[in-house]
Design goal:
Layout lengths: L17 H11 L7 E5 L7 E7 L2 E7 L12 H11 L9 E5 L9 E5 L18 H19 L17 H16 L8 H9 L9 E3 L8 E4 L2 E8 L6 E3 L1 H9 L9 H5 L13 H12 L6 H24 L11 H18 L3
Antiparallel strand pairs: 1-2, 2-3, 3-5, 4-5, 6-9, 7-8
Length: about 350
């Protein structure tokens, strides 16, 4: 049996008060009975995610990272509202259970949802799970197909129009993430100014057909069926979802996609099993997405370059908190190397692009 995604003991400095959490849950979620146990999922660099068991009931609690000051990126109320609207129309979405912005429980807003038990892929396949090349190809095709399905959701009918304003989205993203990077820069970080200038010059026009976009869609945010790991049964982490250009979503996804012939330094920062035999290449993913959606992919270099830059900004923002002693998570120390590698990746793409 493949290893399931498991929680571990809570990291120092990120503990929750079990009595306060239990009191909130038993007041907010019907039919809870039994003792509470809180553990933490160790992966991920953004919102903190905990497994909360009350008796036999398994739930997941999400809260902002300690010391975070990036309000729009850690808006628990918005994420909970998304789940409430999305759950009835997208069965891969976790069922939301409770939300509060009352600081009395843990000093910040947080929400709780049902746990979707299954396998979550990290850097490499977990011990006990092997996929043939044909199975890996099938899984990658399903990953792309489900993203296309997500982009086909009727945003208005689902009541998700509150998510964003598609007009001007691409320009706002370039300008906004440039500002975030400059605000988070540290003495050991590259300046990214050449990349920012290229993105500004090559900004693509607004799409006439905006969609729901996840904005962090990748292997470690989907749940696989433990009984049949080529089937995807859940999509997690909707904190950055919005209503916008779906090619921006795909570009963000492919920024994480390291393939076999990429430079060795890219392999050092690989976080997903995208090099397993049979995995699709970025080009194959782009072509498959075009086939499924009918969208024009001729200028996709812009979207991929933006995705790489955005990933660097996210890493730099987290590293900035570590550099300034706001968080003690030692994993964050390595992120500066990732930021430097991502700048080189963006520059290579720009130099090779025909845009």
């Amino acid at each position: 049996m493949p290893v399931m995604d498991t929680a571990v003991e809570v990291r120092e400095g990120e503990e929750l008060d079990p009595k306060r959490v239990e009191a909130f849950l038993k007041e907010s979620v019907p039919d809870l009975d039994g003792e509470i146990r809180i553990q933490q999922f160790p992966s991920g660099f953004s919102n903190l995610t905990y497994q909360v068991n009350v008796g036999q009931r398994e739930m997941v609690l999400r809260r902002p990272p300690v010391g975070a000051r990036i309000k729009s990126a850690h808006d628990m109320g918005r994420e909970y509202k998304i789940l409430n609207a999305l759950y009835p129309v997208f069965p891969y979405c976790p069922r939301p259970l409770a939300y509060t912005q009352d600081p009395s429980t843990m000093g910040c807003p947080f929400y709780v949802m049902e746990k979707i038990p299954g396998i979550i892929l990290r850097r490499d396949l977990p011990k006990g799970l092997s996929l043939t090349p044909d199975q890996a190809t099938t899984l990658c095709r399903k990953l792309v197909g489900l993203q296309a399905d997500l982009h086909a959701i009727d945003v208005k009918a689902a009541g998700l129009e509150f998510l964003g304003k598609p007009n001007g989205y691409v320009r706002r993203q370039v300008e906004g993430w440039a500002g975030r990077y400059r605000n988070a820069i540290t003495p050991d970080a590259p300046d990214f100014e050449r990349v920012i200038a290229w993105l500004t010059e090559k900004i693509q026009p607004d799409t006439s057909t905006p969609t729901l976009v996840h904005n962090d869609y990748k292997f470690d945010n989907v749940v696989l069926d433990a009984a049949n790991p080529v089937n995807i049964i859940g999509v997690l982490d909707w904190e950055m979802a919005t209503y916008a250009d779906p090619l921006m979503d795909l570009g963000n996804s492919l920024a994480y996609w390291v393939e076999g012939d990429d430079p060795e330094e890219c392999h050092l920062m690989r976080t997903l099993p995208t090099t397993m035999p049979g995995a699709l290449t970025r080009r194959e993913i782009i072509d498959l997405y075009a086939e499924k959606t009918g969208r024009d992919m001729d200028n996709f270099d812009f979207y991929l370059c933006f995705g790489i830059f955005r990933l660097a900004v996210i890493a730099q923002q987290i590293y900035h908190r570590y550099f300034n002693g706001i968080t003690k998570d030692k994993r964050f120390a390595m992120l500066i190397a990732g930021v430097q590698i991502l700048e080189r990746s963006a520059l290579r793409l720009m130099d090779q692009s025909t845009l």
